[in-house]
Amino acid sequence: MVKKVLVLGAGMVSKPLVRYLLDQTGVHVTMASRTVSKAEKIINNHPRGEAVSFNIEDDDVLLKKLVKDHDVAVSLLPYIYHVKVAKQCIKHGKHLVTTSYVSKEMKDLDGEAKDTGVLLLNECGLDPGIDHMSAMRVIHEVESKSGKIISFKSTTGALPAHDSNNNPFGYKFSWSPRGVLLASRNAAKWLENGETISIPGEKLFEHYIIQDVPDVGSFENYPNRDSLPYKEIYGLKDAKTVYRGTFRMVGWCETMRSIAALGWLNDKPLKSFSGRTYGEMTKHLIKTQGDNTIEETARFLNLKTYSAIIKRLEWLGLFSDEPLPENADNPLDYLTLLMLKKMSLSKNDRDMVIMHHEFIAEYNNKKEYITSTLLDYGVPGGDTAVARTVALPAAIAVKMILQGDIKPIGVHIPVIPEIYNPILDELEKLNIRFNEKTKII
């Protein structure tokens, strides 16, 4: 009997997952999406694929039927809907895979999932996902040689490849633009030399370093959310430094700090605003009626009018007469749509994913500095590196679940060898691999 997989969502990363399942396994795939045409395009008339029109917000009856009729569900919907899907999976005894962080609400389903023999495998994408798997492989290897990790740093970037980096922001969107901007408001926390460092969201971009990644380039590295839980998640009981970061091209952090300071990351409608252009919105945000918006903005930010930041904001169109889109009602969404218009990957562009782990391992009589680096490029006109690296780990996990190769039940992330080893091995066959280097220090 043909196994059936339900894929919820047809967004920017869904295609490699669906095509892997259709082309490399014998399963039937149902894609359920609000925009059914997107799903139909991905299915591309495959005999074992079908597309269904579905809206998670208002079709509980169809969700129940879809989950019930399939063996495994994959939720590529926004993370706020995963728990709703997970509850149906538990109710009908079906397994679930997501590529999103485990929320408290998801974690709370662990007992129910175990009672019904269901696996809720989360964080099985790129970051989170491949980052866990590749880090744990090194950590467990060090421990197998009676060593201990005393420092761990892990940073990931999803960026335009150097040959496609042709805008002043050094960035192009290969996943949800709104998600990128919302992440810009996150507070951060990490452990450094035994000291806990906390940074409020509004100061996030003030805390970055310039880091050289060998054979790849120099990037800004700024902290990514709360790194402290990973001391326990990864079993790093001896680590004095635990840090997770994000890579961007040089200039990003200072520019985004200024965009945040102007108020462009506010996602609430401004009731007192009656303007119609991006320039008028900028003037409203800095509370000026002056004629020279560039000069007024530079003064507000304590910058020179010729500074690179002001030039980037001008290039983006924040001082322009361009009309604000009618399908948005707040600064963040106006900004999202403008950035998407000016900073999307074109057909001839390719993106790149960089993941760079740094470990200091301590043994009885020596210390080692270990680096493990992933560099993956998208294919112009084909799959992006982001889509491949987010979707394929989840696709491989689905295959393993259907084959009965993953035994744990309950809420999990891929930090145990029986999950991460087969996925990493399969990814290597798909040319997604890490380059490891070790030196004595």
Summarize the model shown.
This protein has 441 residues and is α/β, with parallel strands linked by helices. The protein has helices spanning 14-24, 36-43, 60-68, 82-92, 104-107, 110-115, 130-144, 177-183, 229-233, 252-262, 278-285, 293-301, 308-316, 331-342, 385-402, 417-429; strands at residues 4-8, 28-33, 49-53, 72-75, 95-98, 119-121, 148-160, 188-192, 195-199, 209-213, 217-223, 241-248, 351-362, 367-377, 410-412, 434-440.
Description:
It is a single chain. By secondary structure, the chain is an alpha/beta fold. The chain folds into 3 domains: 4-122, NAD(P)-binding Rossmann-like Domain (Rossmann fold, 3-Layer(aba) Sandwich); 130-250 and 347-385 and 435-440, 2-Layer Sandwich (Dihydrodipicolinate Reductase, domain 2); 269-329, no CATH class. It contains 16 helices and 16 strands. It has helices at 14-24, 36-43, 60-68, 82-92, 104-107, 110-115, 130-144, 177-183, 229-233, 252-262, 278-285, 293-301, 308-316, 331-342, 385-402, 417-429; strands spanning 4-8, 28-33, 49-53, 72-75, 95-98, 119-121, 148-160, 188-192, 195-199, 209-213, 217-223, 241-248, 351-362, 367-377, 410-412, 434-440. The strands form 3 sheets. The protein has a 7-stranded parallel beta sheet, with helices on both faces. A 7-stranded mixed beta sheet has the order 10-11-12-7-13-14-16, with helices on one face. A two-stranded antiparallel sheet has the order 8-9. α1 (14-24) links the parallel β1 (4-8) and β2 (28-33). α3 packs across α4 (82-92) and α8 (177-183) packs across α14. The protein is globular and about 70 Å long. The protein starts with a strand and ends with a strand. The mean pLDDT is 95.
